[in-house]
């Protein structure tokens, strides 16, 4: 019965998307020409299907490849080129690195060592998970990080429920689950590859302006925001909203010690993955410096990511006849995300080719006489719309809009684009806001009202931090 209801619901949203697209086409403002109405109609259809998940998101992302050539919006060759954007290969390389880290349990060792270092009281365990999750999410996708940390957290909660009889175990379970989701989201904004919206915006920026967003500059701006958001996450939950009052637990300490012992000493494969991971991170961070001091080779973030991926298939593992990654390992990779990026870039290109993006940007820019207010409105709008819309789809749709606004006002486009992108990853009130939110909400330890309350408080903090850094620090870094 539940399956039948879900099936019917999907077809209702499927039809709703088509209906809304047609309504817009026939009743659009007279100022829009034929091409603009067609392009926006396709965009509305894709957004409705993305938001409602009437079809799988990667399937919806393929729509421009059919609709744009048929409607004369863009040629097949031009649309297909969007699905081979360099940003897609950047994320591909990051996925491969994440697969290797997970395959050889490097992620688990990092997490357990941080928890072992912070201690086993309720607050310290939560802090340990925040630090471990936030760090991992800087380099892996926020969804993958949450999936990795989720079973460890569930095991710790189980131990605490059976071994610990002091304090509030329910608050502990609630904060630990929320900590994983929010730390994944916040950690992900620190690097370009940390969360899909970052990669989506970087891909759009490269496509529109012909320049890459500098990895080190992004980190320089966003790492402090991440650190402050992680600190705020800890204080809001364990000191403010949901104190657990759980003292150090011998049972939890024993669990962490047992898991560390079960892992044993790092094997050759794990060490080799760590070396590849560290070298890749260093190349990303110091790419500009390397390019400046020599002219033989010119590195970019995509080249580094693909180089890391290829290396993982070359470096031998401790298992005879096998490398650190085998091709069958890629069956676990989220290939659909790559299609999603391609579809989003194709949609943005289609809207831009009609001139609609520029026209809309010019109109919005007429309200931009106060750039401080405009920046604040972009951040607030992006964050709260992200509660109800996929943050990837959101960035895909709004990146052209804020870029056109910036161009009309003669501003550096990153001054609006980066704040919009960061805000899209910070939505925390709704389970559907981000994949990490949905994953932990399914644990059964979180009540809807608790997520809304915690998310709302953190949203306000995120708005303030992103606004401050974007207004005061961003112009100094991106001159």
Task: Provide structural commentary.
- The protein is 75% helix and 0% strand.
- The chain has helices at 2-27, 34-52, 57-61, 63-70, 76-82, 86-103, 106-118, 122-139, 142-163, 169-188, 196-209, 215-241, 250-263, 268-285, 287-293, 301-314, 335-353, 356-365, 371-385, 391-408, 414-424, 435-441, 448-472, 474-477.
- The longest helix is centred in the middle third of the chain and has 27 residues, at 215-241.
The helix fraction, in percent, is: over 70%
What gap, in angstroms, lies between the N and C termini?
58 Å
How would you sum up the global shape? globular
Largest sheet: none
Quick check: average pLDDT?
82
Q: Over the alpha carbons, how many angstroms does the gyration radius reach? A: 23 Å
**Stretches with pLDDT under 50, minimum 5 residues:** none
Q: Count of DSSP helices?
A: 24
Output the structural class: mainly alpha
Provide the β-strand percentage band. Answer: under 5%
Give the SSE string: HHHHHHHHHHHHHHHHHHHHHHHH
* Quantity of strands, as a count: 0
């Amino acid at each position: 019965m539940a399956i039948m209801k879900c099936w019917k619901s999907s077809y209702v949203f499927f039809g709703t998307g088509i209906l809304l697209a047609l309504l817009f086409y026939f009743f659009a403002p007279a100022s829009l020409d034929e091409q603009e109405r067609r392009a926006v109609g396709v965009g509305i259809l894709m957004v409705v299907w993305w938001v409602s998940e009437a079809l799988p998101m990667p399937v919806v992302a393929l729509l421009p490849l059919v609709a744009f050539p048929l409607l004369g919006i863009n040629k097949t060759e031009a649309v297909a080129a969007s699905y081979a954007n360099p940003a897609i290969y950047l994320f591909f390389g990051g996925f491969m690195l994440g697969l290797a880290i997970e395959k050889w349990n490097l992620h688990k060792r990092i997490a357990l060592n941080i928890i072992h270092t912070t201690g086993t009281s309720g607050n310290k365990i939560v802090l340990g998970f925040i630090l471990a999750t936030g760090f991992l999410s800087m380099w892996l996708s926020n969804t993958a990080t949450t999936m990795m940390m989720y079973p460890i957290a569930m095991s710790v909660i189980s131990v605490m429920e059976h071994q610990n009889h002091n304090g509030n175990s329910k608050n502990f379970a609630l904060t630990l689950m929320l900590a994983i989701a929010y730390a994944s989201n916040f950690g992900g904004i620190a690097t370009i590859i940390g969360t899909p919206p970052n990669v989506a915006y970087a891909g759009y920026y490269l496509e529109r302006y012909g320049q890459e967003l500098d990895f080190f500059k992004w980190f320089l701006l966003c790492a402090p925001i991440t650190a402050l958001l992680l600190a705020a996450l800890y204080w809001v939950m364990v000191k403010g909203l949901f104190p657990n009052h759980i003292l150090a637990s011998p049972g939890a300490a024993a669990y962490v010690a047992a898991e560390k012992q079960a892992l044993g000493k790092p094997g050759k494969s794990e060490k080799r993955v760590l070396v590849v991971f560290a070298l890749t991170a260093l190349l990303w961070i110091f790419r500009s410096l390397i390019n400046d001091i020599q002219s033989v080779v010119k590195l970019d973030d995509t080249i580094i990511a693909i180089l890391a991926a290829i290396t993982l298939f070359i470096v031998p593992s401790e298992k005879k006849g096998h490398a650190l990654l085998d091709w069958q390992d890629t069956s676990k990779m989220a290939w659909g995300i790559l299609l999603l990026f391609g579809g989003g870039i194709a949609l943005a290109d289609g809207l831009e080719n009609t001139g609609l993006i520029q026209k809309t940007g010019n109109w919005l820019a007429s309200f931009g006489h106060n750039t401080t207010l405009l920046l604040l409105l972009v951040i607030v709008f992006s964050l709260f719309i992200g509660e109800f819309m996929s943050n990837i789809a959101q960035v895909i749709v709004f990146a052209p809009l804020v870029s056109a606004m910036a161009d009309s006002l003669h501003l550096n486009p990153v001054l609006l684009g980066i704040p919009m992108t960061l805000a899209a990853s910070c939505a925390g009130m709704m389970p559907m806001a981000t994949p990490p939110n949905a994953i932990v909400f399914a644990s059964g330890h979180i009540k809807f009202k608790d997520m809304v309350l915690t998310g709302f408080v953190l949203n306000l903090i995120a708005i303030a931090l992103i606004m401050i850094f974007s207004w005061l620090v961003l112009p100094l870094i991106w001159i």
